[in-house]
């Protein structure tokens, strides 16, 4: 981690957190070796930030942190007296305490400070689906150009993003930060601490509607990635409560034009959950994009897009597309020239993700050679359309496509579209989509209608809401338990020597249990 002294940190925290020092042994030149939120990971010289969650309170472990060598603790002010009374045994050591109103915000502020001290080119990306795939592709490309850090796992929220930024050591050339959200203001906050030079919006879909309220709310939330206020220039406490963003015209925006193309066609789909908000979404994007001049568009479907009254050329496109059983080949066209790509990932949406990654990487100086090598080096991510060969019977193959990591309306449709292009007896195995609130039923029905018109042989469902998907298909079947569903799939494998199953559902549906059982058959 990039180091900084105690005095500098205290001044930065005081600007936004009304912090104060309660030091038993004040060392203004103190430099923490690292920043941790888990007392089990504390080593000598660590800065320990005591976070409070639903099921834990880091303040209960402050004494443990000091006993392991922590030299600085940041804690909430209302825990001050109780904690300090326990710290007398450590008064002979370099023990410093900073009290703040909210340690979660202090974590973000420390991360913003580390980001400010870094010379790395930072890119950030968001979207209802495809974020992790684009992140992995961008990381692969930029790794050809220099040293890179990137978001690991699902560390894309108000806690994960600062922990990612705290990995910056000062030696990196690039940082690739994935920004997720389930409520308005979250991306504004995480973007503000990341302070990216270039950003990307990959997709807008009916996801986390409990937190966003509508598809228009999703659009507003994703747009925060290019309308953020740098965290070191604002009051984070006020910012969290009322995220009033401004338009940061210095940020280069990579926009998936397919979002605008799909929105413009919503009126033709009266059955779509999205059609309800079509006019509002169109107007929102028109205003947002017309006010932000530094925009590049990418699309796997078109070469131009209408933004307000202007028809604009799309900067990143594909031609000469050939779909294969294990991926695709295509020409990727950019403002810097064209390159031939062989992509080892399933689905047309993977091609769109590749376009986005190329655009984002090119915006911070990646070469065409780096883009080609980076994209062609990417392997499927576990739980995201990851193909698994279950059996080979003569010339016939049985495939399991593991897409169990998460689900929303857009990614469900992408999985169905991918399955329809594959061979053999095709079954879509689906669990519930979560966090859709009052729109849950209509969202599941929307996916079911899409599946009913796709080139797939059957739809199997399990869960409380997913029967709205299987009920729409002529060969749909709902199961009361995963055990029953797994046994039926195993019988299908005996019946159909050539077959392909796609397994998908939200995180809470735990559809990976089905994947595991089929792999162990």
UniProtKB/TrEMBL annotation:
<feature type="binding site">
    <location>
        <begin position="127"/>
        <end position="133"/>
    </location>
    <ligand>
        <name>ATP</name>
    </ligand>
</feature>
<dbReference type="GO" id="GO:0008766">
    <property type="term" value="F:UDP-N-acetylmuramoylalanyl-D-glutamyl-2,6-diaminopimelate-D-alanyl-D-alanine ligase activity"/>
</dbReference>
<keyword id="KW-0963">Cytoplasm</keyword>
<dbReference type="Pfam" id="PF02875">
    <property type="entry name" value="Mur_ligase_C"/>
</dbReference>
<keyword id="KW-0131">Cell cycle</keyword>
<dbReference type="InterPro" id="IPR013221">
    <property type="entry name" value="Mur_ligase_cen"/>
</dbReference>
<keyword id="KW-0547">Nucleotide-binding</keyword>
<dbReference type="GO" id="GO:0008360">
    <property type="term" value="P:regulation of cell shape"/>
</dbReference>
<keyword id="KW-0133">Cell shape</keyword>
<keyword id="KW-0961">Cell wall biogenesis/degradation</keyword>
<dbReference type="InterPro" id="IPR004101">
    <property type="entry name" value="Mur_ligase_C"/>
</dbReference>
<keyword id="KW-0132">Cell division</keyword>
<comment type="similarity">
    <text>Belongs to the MurCDEF family. MurF subfamily.</text>
</comment>
<dbReference type="GO" id="GO:0009252">
    <property type="term" value="P:peptidoglycan biosynthetic process"/>
</dbReference>
<keyword id="KW-0573">Peptidoglycan synthesis</keyword>
<dbReference type="InterPro" id="IPR000713">
    <property type="entry name" value="Mur_ligase_N"/>
</dbReference>
<comment type="pathway">
    <text>Cell wall biogenesis; peptidoglycan biosynthesis.</text>
</comment>
<dbReference type="GO" id="GO:0005737">
    <property type="term" value="C:cytoplasm"/>
</dbReference>
<protein>
    <recommendedName>
        <fullName>UDP-N-acetylmuramoyl-tripeptide--D-alanyl-D-alanine ligase</fullName>
        <ecNumber>6.3.2.10</ecNumber>
    </recommendedName>
</protein>
<dbReference type="Pfam" id="PF01225">
    <property type="entry name" value="Mur_ligase"/>
</dbReference>
<dbReference type="InterPro" id="IPR036615">
    <property type="entry name" value="Mur_ligase_C_dom_sf"/>
</dbReference>
<keyword id="KW-0436">Ligase</keyword>
<dbReference type="Pfam" id="PF08245">
    <property type="entry name" value="Mur_ligase_M"/>
</dbReference>
<feature type="domain" description="Mur ligase central">
    <location>
        <begin position="126"/>
        <end position="230"/>
    </location>
</feature>
<dbReference type="InterPro" id="IPR005863">
    <property type="entry name" value="UDP-N-AcMur_synth"/>
</dbReference>
<dbReference type="GO" id="GO:0051301">
    <property type="term" value="P:cell division"/>
</dbReference>
<dbReference type="InterPro" id="IPR051046">
    <property type="entry name" value="MurCDEF_CellWall_CoF430Synth"/>
</dbReference>
<dbReference type="GO" id="GO:0005524">
    <property type="term" value="F:ATP binding"/>
</dbReference>
<dbReference type="InterPro" id="IPR035911">
    <property type="entry name" value="MurE/MurF_N"/>
</dbReference>
<feature type="domain" description="Mur ligase N-terminal catalytic">
    <location>
        <begin position="35"/>
        <end position="113"/>
    </location>
</feature>
<feature type="domain" description="Mur ligase C-terminal">
    <location>
        <begin position="396"/>
        <end position="507"/>
    </location>
</feature>
<comment type="function">
    <text>Involved in cell wall formation. Catalyzes the final step in the synthesis of UDP-N-acetylmuramoyl-pentapeptide, the precursor of murein.</text>
</comment>
<keyword id="KW-0067">ATP-binding</keyword>
<dbReference type="GO" id="GO:0071555">
    <property type="term" value="P:cell wall organization"/>
</dbReference>
<dbReference type="InterPro" id="IPR036565">
    <property type="entry name" value="Mur-like_cat_sf"/>
</dbReference>
<dbReference type="GO" id="GO:0047480">
    <property type="term" value="F:UDP-N-acetylmuramoyl-tripeptide-D-alanyl-D-alanine ligase activity"/>
</dbReference>
